[in-house]
Fold each of these.
Amino acid sequence: MPHNYSATHAPVSAGSPHEFHENLQRAILERATRERLDLDVRQVEAVQLLSTNAAFHLGPGHQSPAGKHVYLWGPPGRGKTWVLGAFYDALPTAKKRRVHFHDFFRELHATAHRATAIALARVDEPGSLGSSRGRMDRVSARTSAIEQAIESMLGDVEVLCFDEFHCNDPGDAMLLARMFKFIMGRRILLITTSNYPPEELLADEYYHHLILPTVTSIREQMNVHELDAKLDYRTISRDIDDRHGFAAGSLAVNQTEADLLTLGISAPDPSESRTLKPTSHEIKALRVASGQLWFDFRDLCESLTSTLDYLELAKDHKHWVISDVPASAGMTPFGLRRLANTIDVLYDHGIRLDLLANGDFSDSLNHLPSLDAARLESRLNALQLRDGTHEATEQLVEGVNA
C-alpha cells in the first residue's frame, strides 16, 4: 500500500535492548491490527529483523550498525513499503530520514555537482583546463566534494530508509559505490526496500561490473531478506473506507460523464485549460484547480515530459486525472513508459490517480521489461476498477492481475 510520507505515529519508548525490541515490534504489529492487516510469515520475520537490528543500534550502548543494515526485496505488492513505513514511524528517534531513492539520488546528483564545481575551481590554475585532467589533487577534490555533499544531506541522521532502491544507469554506479562507502563508514543504520535482489542491480551485462562493489557491500554489510508470499496484496479488494492516497483513485474504462460523477469528478471546461512549465518543457493541463490536475494522455505521456516534471507537479497537486488513455492498439512504447513513470511518482507520494481509459490496454504492457511491467500491473491493481461493460471488465482484470 502507498505510504503517506508526512504521516506521523507515536514512536515507542526506549529501554533495555530487549525492551526496545519488544516495544518496537509490538507497535508495528498493533498498527497492522488497527489497519486490519494480517501479516504473512515473511513480513513478520522482516518486522522481527528490523526491530532486533534497530535495538542493537539505537538501544543502550548505541552500538555500531556494521553488519546490521537491512535490504528488503521482493516483487511488487508484497508489503515492503508498509513494513518499512510502520517501522520508521515507530522508531523512537528524531534523527531518522525516509526518502524515495529516486528523490534522494536526484538531490545527491545536484548537490554533488555544485560541490564538485566549487572544489575543482579551488585547485585549478587559470588556463590549465584540460591539461589538469587526471591530476591527483583534482581527483581528491572531487571525492571530497561528493563526501561533503552526502554529509550535508544526511547531517546527524542515525537511521536512513530508502524506498525503491535500484540502479539502472551505469553513470550512477560509481556515485552509488561512494555513497555506500560513506554510509557504511558512519554510525548510520541503513534500511532499503527494492524490487531487485542485489545481484540484479544494473543487470545490463555490459555495465554490471560497475555495480559489483556495491553488491559486495550489500552482501557483506546488510541482512538481505526476501518478501514474497506468492501473492500481490494489491489484487485483494478493499472497502472504500480503507482506501486512501493513490488507492483512493480508480481505473475507469469507457465511462460516461454520469459515471464520472459517481467517482466525484466532472469533465473540465475548455476555459479551465492551463499551460504549466514545471521544469524545462511546457505541458498543457485541462484543469488546474483545488489541488487537482487533469491531463489528456497525449499531452502528458506523448510529449517531451520527464520524471522530474512529475515530481515537481506532485509537490502541490494531490489529485491527478489522466483521460483518453488509449487501448492497447493505440498505446505506444514511449507513451506507456511515461505513464508508468507518472504512476510510480504518484504511488510513491500517496497521490490519488483517476485513470480514464478508452479500452483495455493490458496487452501493451509487453512493451516494458518484465519487472517494470509487473510493478505497473501491481500498482494498477491498487486502483478501483470501473468498467462500462461486464465483458470488458473480465478482460481487463485478467490482463492486469496476470
Amino acid sequence: MTRKLLGLLAVLAATAMLAASCGDDETATTSGQQEPAPTAAPAADAPDPEPEPEPAAEEPAAEPEPEPEPAAEEPAAEEPEEALRVALVLPGSANDKGFNQLAFEALPILESEFGVETAYSEATPVNEYVQAFEDFASDGYDIVIGQGFQFGEIAAEVAPNFPDNIFLVPNTTNLSGTNMQGIQPASHHAAYLAGVAAAMATESNQIGGIAGHAFPIIVAQMEAFAIGARSVAPDADVTITYLGTFDDVEAGKETARAMISSGVDIVYHIADAAGIGVIQAAREEGVLAIGWGGDQTEIAPDTILTSQIVNQTLLVVESVRAVVDGSFDGQQRLMGLDTPVLGMAPVRVVDNAAEIEAGIAEAKAGILDGSIEVPFIAEPSN
C-alpha cells in the first residue's frame, strides 16, 4: 500500500476514537459517578507498509552536444575577366584579295585563339585616320591596329593621349613606345626573290612592276624586286610605276596594259585592289603576273607565275599574341625570311618551274646566311 493510503487510514481511526469519547461524556449515571470509559477495541493490525522504492539512480546528465562549427565561408566567386577587345583600321576594302583582306582574316583567328572581341573599320578615309584611332580607344578597345605604314604617324600622335591602350602598326619601319609598336616584315627580302623568279621566267627580258603609293616600305620592295631580277639578268629592262592609289582597279588594269603593249611579258604588283586590275590585264593579254600578299593563283590560275608571300594575317596575329602573352615591349619588331610571315608561293604555269624554284631557294639561302645583301631603298631610283 502506498504511504498516502496508510496516512489516510490513520486519520480515519483517530477520528473514530475522538467521536466515541465525546458520546460517553453526555450519558448520566444514577449514582452520580462516572463510569469508566470503555476501552476501545484495539484496531486491527495494519499491514506492514510496503518498502518505499529506492529512488532510481540519477542518470548522469548528458554532455551538451557541441555546437556545430560555423560553415567555412566560401570564397566569393571571382568576377570573370572581361575579354580583351581588339580593333582593326583598314585603309582599303576588307575583300581586296590582298593587303587589307589578309589583315581582316586575322580577326576570327584572334577571336578563336585568344577569346578577344573584335571590330574593324574598312576603306577608312585618310582624313579620318586619327578619328578612327581615337574612337576605338575611347570605346574601350584595348588594342587598336592600323594596317599599314601610313598609320605609324597616327599611332605616335594618338597613343600618348590613351596610355591604357596599345597601338600596333604592321608594315611600318620605325615605331616604338610605351604603348605602341611597329611590326615590320623584311618584305624587301621576299621582293628580291620575286625579282629572281621574274627574270628566270621572262622571254622578252622586259619586266614591269606596279605599286599603289610610293611609301618607303613599298618603294623598298620595288627596288629590291629590280635588284633581284638583275642578279639573274643584268641587262633586264625593269619598269616601275606608282599608281597613287590602292583601290582603283581600272587604273591598275590600264597601267599594266600600257606596259604589256611596250613589250613587258611579266608584271609584278603591290597594289591591293588595284593589283587585281593588273592581274586581269595580264590574263587578258596573255602574259604572266606575280601576285603579292597571299597566293593569288585563284584569281587567274593560268596567269599567276608565283606570289610574294607577306602574310598579313599571321603578322597581325603575332603582334596581338605578344600583348596577350606579356612579351610586348614597345620596341620595333622585324620578321624575316626565317619566319612563316615571308616567302614565295609555288611556281606554276611555266615549263621551267622546277628551275625557278631552285633559283629562289638558292637566293633565299644567300639572304639568310648574309652572302646576299638586299638594301632597303626608301626612294624610287627612276
